[in-house]
């Protein structure tokens, strides 16, 4: 079942990317900066807890939002796997666990206006499949569902998201680097359509086993947004326990 579902949603993503009109790239583009701190904590039971504290700022309008995510994940390996890998979201190399489930909660609001423009409470559930490829490249499929309560009235809606990601662990000057690229499509129940495409390219650098830094560039196309094109610089500090 899962291989067929993955092939289907992967085709869905690439189809959606192809139908984005080229003219959209010439339209209005919003520019934002996204600072973030991610805290990761392992347990002896292969369960990992994490908390993301993230912000966003529009460069032109100074509009700002803040989000906090609390989540837990459990990963396990396929039978016989003995591969060592450092993933983009891990501080050091370890035995690759190719399957993972994650659940959590996101809370967000616009800043400087007591959340008058934007508030969100979301429950999230993810399933990850990681596939090692030749050349030391890791391909990851992520299927995610967001159960969203938006605004003061907490209007309910849901999103289905599929992300395809490639990454590679590289050692340079005694430091572990993980360059990566991803493409993601969002299906939103409010419009009964794929209304957002997001592409990301970046790199994480392991400073020590407990600390890593990450930077990426994001392009997002959303024809129903006030600015259909979004370009963002995202910087992340990862702290591992």
Describe this structure in words.
The protein has one helix at residues 2-19, and strands at 29-42, 47-58, 64-76, 84-85, 94-95, 99-110, 119-132, 137-150, 155-168, 170-172, 175-188, 193-208, 211-221, 229-240. The protein has one domain (2-20, 27-240): monomeric porin ompg (Porin), CATH 2.40.160.40. It has 241 residues and is mainly β. The longest helix has 18 residues, at 2-19. It has an 11-stranded mixed β-barrel with strand order 1-2-3-6-7-8-9-11-12-13-14. A two-stranded antiparallel ribbon has the order 4-5.
Quick recap:
This protein has 241 residues and is mainly beta. The chain contains 1 helix and 14 strands, in the order αββββββββββββββ. It has one domain: Porin (Beta Barrel), CATH 2.40.160.40.
Low-confidence runs: 18-24
User: What fold name goes in the CATH topology slot?
Assistant: Porin
Radius of gyration: 18 Å
CATH architecture designation: Beta Barrel
Q: How many runs of DSSP E, i.e. beta strands?
A: 14
> Which structural category do the helix and sheet elements fall into?
mainly beta
Q: What is the CATH class designation?
A: Mainly Beta
Quick tags:
single chain; 241 residues; mainly beta; Porin; 7% helix; 63% strand; globular
